[in-house]
């Protein structure tokens, strides 16, 4: 891990177990078996970024499920009753401890892809971490986004107010609710119109990934001169959507129309169209500094197959 001779900075990424939930396929993919339900992970990731003083910055992306379902608001608990069985251990904090890290002391930054129940985890486990969320997240936590996301399913006190920074609205965002609380600016990279070079050294990019929920972001991490990882959160819930084998399912929204699991289905499709080129080998939208071909591994949060095939890449293992 670290810099190469030409000053490229690389990070180490490890998957983290952070609970599991059960999803009915018919709500997520086209041409689904109407009876099939799958228990899938909600993956978190540890990113370790090298520093000059030898003390790596440790960043966690997503926190998975709460280990105590009673800590969710009552309206959210009613929804979770339809996602059983859930597996609550190990949660994100357990996984960090198993690898030798103390979540209360060793984690510098937590970035949430979004604040759905199966990604928000237990922020109280990280009393010394800075939290970073996408634009509009704090407004969403306080007010919801009716009718599909009523205020009652969110906890306005989920995140520590004195340690949470919200990314600014980007140039294509008409929302005025979110005010910039960071010094970061959105810039195009790798075919995405809005990314933030988080450490200002080209090693980790926060990618604005709209469509699934307000404030949804992904992470693009540089692992070596020719290898990157794209952590896709809930850009989709099944890797077959990424490859085009399946589409995004539509279902009755209860209000006389159709909806998907995304708050804006068309926007979600546009985000997927930008992620698609990353799957090609070599990647057409990223090159090494010398023009070398690059490969990108795309991992979405609920990919059961990825979890089963990559046990050795969970912390303390690495991607």
UniProtKB/TrEMBL annotation:
Q: InterPro entries annotated for this entry? A: MBL_superfamily_lactonases, RibonucZ/Hydroxyglut_hydro
One molecular function GO term is: hydrolase activity
What this protein needs as a cofactor is: Zn(2+)
* Keywords from the named record: Hydrolase, Metal-binding, Zinc
- Region called Disordered, residue ranges: 156-180
Q: Where is the signal peptide?
A: none
Polar residues composition-biased segments: 171-180
Q: Which domain of life is it from?
A: Eukaryota
Q: Which family does it belong to?
A: Belongs to the metallo-beta-lactamase superfamily.
PANTHER family tied to this protein: 102 KBASES UNSTABLE REGION: FROM 1 TO 119443, QUORUM-QUENCHING LACTONASE YTNP-RELATED-RELATED
What is the official name of this protein in its record? Metallo-beta-lactamase domain-containing protein
Organism, by scientific name, is Cladophialophora yegresii CBS 114405
């Amino acid at each position: 891990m670290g810099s190469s001779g030409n000053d490229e900075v690389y990070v180490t990424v490890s998957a983290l177990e952070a609970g599991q939930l059960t999803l009915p396929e018919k709500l997520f993919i086209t041409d689904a078996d109407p009876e099939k339900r799958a228990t899938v992970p909600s993956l978190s990731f540890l990113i370790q970024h090298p520093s000059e003083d030898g003390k790596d910055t440790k960043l966690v992306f997503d926190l998975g499920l709460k280990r105590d379902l009673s800590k969710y608001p009552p309206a959210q608990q009613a929804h979770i009753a339809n996602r059983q069985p859930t597996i609550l251990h190990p949660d994100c904090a357990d996984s960090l401890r198993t690898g030798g890290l103390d979540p209360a002391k060793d984690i510098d930054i937590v970035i949430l892809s979004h604040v759905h129940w199966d990604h928000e985890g237990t922020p109280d486990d990280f009393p010394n971490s800075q939290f970073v969320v996408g634009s509009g997240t704090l407004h969403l936590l306080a007010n919801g986004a009716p009718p599909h996301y009523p205020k009652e399913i969110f906890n306005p006190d989920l995140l520590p107010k004195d340690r949470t920074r919200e990314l600014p609205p980007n140039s294509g965002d008409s929302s005025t609710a979110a005010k910039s609380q960071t010094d970061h600016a959105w810039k195009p990279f790798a075919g995405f119109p809005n990314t933030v070079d988080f450490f200002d050294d080209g090693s980790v990019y926060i990618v604005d990934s709209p469509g699934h929920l307000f404030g949804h972001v992904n992470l693009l991490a540089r692992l070596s001169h020719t290898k990157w990882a794209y952590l896709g959160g809930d850009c989709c819930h099944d890797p077959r959507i990424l490859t085009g084998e399946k589409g995004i399912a539509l279902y009755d929204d209860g209000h006389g129309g159709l909806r998907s699991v995304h708050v804006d289905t068309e926007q979600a499709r546009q985000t997927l169209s930008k992620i698609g080129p990353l799957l090609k080998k070599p990647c057409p939208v990223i090159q090494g500094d010398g023009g070398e071909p690059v490969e990108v591994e795309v991992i979405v949060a609920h990919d059961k197959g990825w979890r089963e095939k990559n046990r050795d890449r969970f912390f303390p293992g690495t991607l």
